[in-house]
Amino acid sequence: MRKIAIVGSPNVGKSVIFNNLTGTYADVSNYPGTTVEVYRGKCKIGGEEFEVIDTPGMYSLLPISEEEKVGRSILLAESPCVILHVVDAKNLARMLMMTLQLLEAGMPVILVLNIFDEAEGLGIDIDLDKLAKELNIPAVKTVGTTGAGMDILRGKIEEHVKRFC
Amino acid sequence: MLKDFVKNIGYDDPLEIYLSKLEKLLGSEYGISKRAVSLLLLQEDEEIFELVKKNEGDKIGVISAIIREANSHYSNPLSYIISERRQGEASRITNSVMSVKEKGLFNFKETLSRLMMNPFIGGPILLAVMYYGLYKFVGNFGAGVLVDFIEKRIFDAHINPFMVDLVNRYLPYELLRDLLAGQYGIITLGARYAFAIILPIVATFFFAFAIIEDTGYLPRLAMLIDQLFKKIGLSGRAVIPLVLGLGCSTMATMVTRTLPTKRERIIATLLLSLAIPCSAQMGVILALLQNKPLGLLIWLGVIIGVFLFVGYLASKIMPGELPSFYMEIPPLRLPQLSNILRKTGSRLKWYLFEVLPLFIFASVLIWLGQITGVFGFLVKALEHPVRWIGLPAQSSVAFLFGFFRRDYGAAGLYDLKTAGLLSGNQLVVACVTLTLFLPCVAQLLMNIKERGIGVGIIMSTFILFFSFSVGYFVNLVLILSGINL
């Protein structure tokens, strides 16, 4: 079974995206570090079944704490065919540093700009097409808690798998 | 496949030269691009270095030399140089794709957030959260109203008489009758403790706690307490595992993984085992000390005192770097009812799956112990330390229960109190001792799993003696000062 790994900084809503994709429940809270272990679930996209892996938050590929190491070792050891880099759309500049690292490492990344409702509330607008072109990867806007953008994300995953896996 | 995605940002010259030298030297596959491996090597990532050493054999000498040479070229650490370059690129991209419309409105969330972290106003806010969230909702409503209703109206009035009757009628063996519906029977004691006493308390606690969690209050609490925590050698980051411990110390011990240093993890684990009462236990204690506000204050004062004292001592005994504190402060959010309910439900399920087998197991064990006489022997043996701290001999049963789970022990005390066997002073002493007392079996196992068997056993032995000693002193002080609660 092909694998989809969800990575990103703490408290950007990785587990909400995981719950949305798999329909199972991983604990979700409003503080960093709720997920300290790896959660696995299954989801079906475009008729194919995938294993979805929710990882503890990490700030970069250079880990500081124990639980950050867990995420990296999954990327290294399990070679997922899609990596969803979930970021907080409000803090794009800081979040993109890790996207760049993932791309340097040659990872098959889809960028997920989550919590987009809060970004809009702050008056932030992001040109999605331009961002996708700049990074040369697919990018999606989502609001995990309402499920907005999840269908587009599934579509991007399907497309991505057809082209590269 | 990897090649499709590699996007390189260029670094400046000497760095690029060292990078390409390293890339050429790397012969095996790492699951990530060689450029990324080389970058991690230059930033002195130990795990990657070990991996490369294993895979590249003899070449590691040359590789180390290149890393050293590259580092000597720069006055700042290479991790800093590399992050700076990435940051520059990330900002460039962000500026080209993002636009912000200024919203100059008064920001209510921002103001509330600041107040929560303000040392003068944050304190009263914390007290209000504790009073209404814990004392009123969990203590009065959960441990008072709900427990009363389920225990008296459902168990005492219907289930227990029905089961006793059923068992008497259809089970001809006295021994089996005892196992199911005797004084310590699976149904009359195990199920009653689990469903009538612990469940309503834990359910109300998990519900209140889920709301607090989802608003984003905890990281602000961490900022508020950071200064105080620094004095006992912990960073504000440790607030989250410790506050989670008020829910379930076993889960919280796992969360100590988010702490950056081993030293902090050990101190936090010790404090979780010793001085942080879990939700079930706290609920029963609130119920025990109901109508005794002074008793509750003394209990709280002693526990906080022990927390600070032991934390301070531990950080003196285990010297180490003062932790630096950096934490993401998420925005304040209105919790979603669906997530609150789902989270409460999933934790309750977890809790019941964990607790019910243990309660049943305890009933079986006690039953076996009664048949063989071991139970009586242990109760007798425990009577000495229990008397020593001024409690009636009957309470040794509750402490024996406490070995299985502290909440089980606390529920035992609750039974004694209902029977009118404990005076005010004795209640306070019993609550203090049982709060500090050995963690439940599940947490003991978690301590061993996370911190290793040596640390786990030393901690438990220390806690065993320490809890009774504190109980002894509290009793002594109460007697000497002539306080009668």
Layout of SSEs?
The complex is a heterodimer of chains A (165) and B (485).
Chain A: E1 2-7, H1 14-22, E2 39-45, E3 48-54, H2 66-78, E4 82-88, H3 92-104, E5 109-114, H4 116-121, E6 124-126, H5 128-135, E7 139-141, H6 150-164
Parallel strand pairs in A: 1-3, 1-4, 4-5, 5-7
Antiparallel strand pairs in A: 2-3
Chain B: H1 13-25, H2 34-42, H3 46-56, H4 60-72, H5 78-97, E1 98-100, H6 108-117, H7 119-170, H8 174-181, H9 186-215, H10 217-231, H11 239-245, H12 249-255, H13 262-274, H14 279-288, H15 293-317, H16 337-372, H17 374-388, H18 396-404, H19 406-418, H20 424-436, H21 441-451, H22 453-480
Features:
heterodimer; A: alpha/beta; Rossmann fold; 6 helices; B: 485 residues; mainly alpha; Helix Hairpins; 1% strand
Care to describe what's here?
- The complex is a heterodimer of chains A (165) and B (485).
- Chain A is of the alpha/beta class and 165 residues long.
- Chain A has helices at 14-22, 66-78, 92-104, 116-121, 128-135, 150-164; strands at 2-7, 39-45, 48-54, 82-88, 109-114, 124-126, 139-141.
- Chain A has a single domain (2-164), classed as 3-Layer(aba) Sandwich (Rossmann fold), CATH 3.40.50.
- Helix content of chain A is 39%, strand content 24%.
- Chain A has a 6-stranded mixed β-sheet with strand order 2-3-1-4-5-7, with helices on both faces.
- The radius of gyration of chain A is 14 Å and the shape is globular.
- Chain B has 2 domains: 2-91, Helix Hairpins (Orthogonal Bundle); 119-480, no CATH class.
- Chains A and B meet through α2, α3, β6 and α5 of A and α2, α5, β1, α9 and α16 of B.
